[in-house]
Design goal:
Distance between the termini: 38 Å
Order of helices and strands: HEEEHHEEEEHHHH
Protein name: Protein kinase domain-containing protein
Strand content: 5-15%
CATH class: Mainly Alpha
CATH architecture: Orthogonal Bundle
Radius of gyration: 20 Å
Shape: globular
Number of helices: 7
CATH topology: Transferase(Phosphotransferase), domain 1
Number of domains: 1
Structural class: mainly alpha
Strand order of the largest sheet: 3-5-6
GO molecular function: ATP binding; protein kinase activity
């Protein structure tokens, strides 16, 4: 998997004029005396979107209403909304860049988005970057169906009725977009919830099983849930 991640980054960084700032930058790779393979990335951030969501939701448990400033809560909520929108915009830009270069991410989630800050007041300077490309799949037509890491994807594509390379490619992109949708749902809920109210797995089950991916029903639930801010 380290080799696949190395190859993916090397390919995406092969043209110095076409480097995406929303994908983590690989500096190099090395192997230890014990055979462990390590990749070295530029230090553009040590937090993930999952870290931000956890920190933010835990902070809400400790916060008390500011009765002397009724606008304080509204101001903080606007900062949070802006931060989350910047985060998602950067993550989607990175994913689009990968798709435009015939690469799928295949493990997109809150832990695979690295951030240079988790301070909402610094949202203007936020730079989200995609990482964890170990499961990335090459969807170029000449590489379709090649590689052990992509076997499961192509089996699911065939089971869904995709038979031609074009259909399989479209299935792969749609699969990545589905993961992106779950990331959007996660960031739209978790940072606005108090800690312990909701987690990623519960949210996914809620969307898939209860609401059956009906985003309008999910928004109605959100507006009625007192433990969640309005977004």
């Amino acid at each position: 998997m380290a080799l696949n991640e190395l190859r993916t980054h090397a390919f995406l960084q092969s043209d110095a004029r076409d480097i995406c700032e929303n994908i983590q930058f690989l500096l190099g790779a090395f192997e230890t005396a014990t055979g462990e393979q390590w990749l070295a990335f530029r230090d553009d951030g040590r937090y993930s979107a999952a870290d931000y969501a956890k920190i933010t939701s835990e902070r809400q448990l400790k916060e008390r209403p500011n009765f002397w400033n009724p606008y304080d809560r509204a101001y903080k909520l606007e900062l949070r909304k802006y931060f989350v929108l910047r985060l998602l915009n950067g993550a989607m830009c990175g994913l689009v860049h990968m798709h435009n270069h015939d690469r799928l991410h295949q493990s997109l989630g809150p832990s695979s988005v690295v951030l240079n800050t988790v301070a909402e007041k610094n949202g203007y300077y936020l730079l989200p970057q995609l990482r964890d490309l170990a499961f990335s799949v090459d969807i170029g037509y000449s590489s379709m169906g090649v590689g052990a890491l992509s076997d499961g994807l192509w089996r699911r594509a065939s089971a869904a009725g995709a038979s031609t390379p074009l259909e399989k490619r479209a299935f792969g992109v749609a699969d990545d977009i589905y993961g992106a949708g779950l990331l959007i749902a996660y960031m739209a809920f978790i940072p606005f919830c108090k800690a312990g109210i909701m987690d990623g797995i519960s949210l996914q089950r809620l969307l898939e099983n209860t609401f059956r991916l009906d985003i309008y029903a999910a928004r109605e639930y959100e507006s009625l849930e007192q433990n969640i801010y309005m977004v």
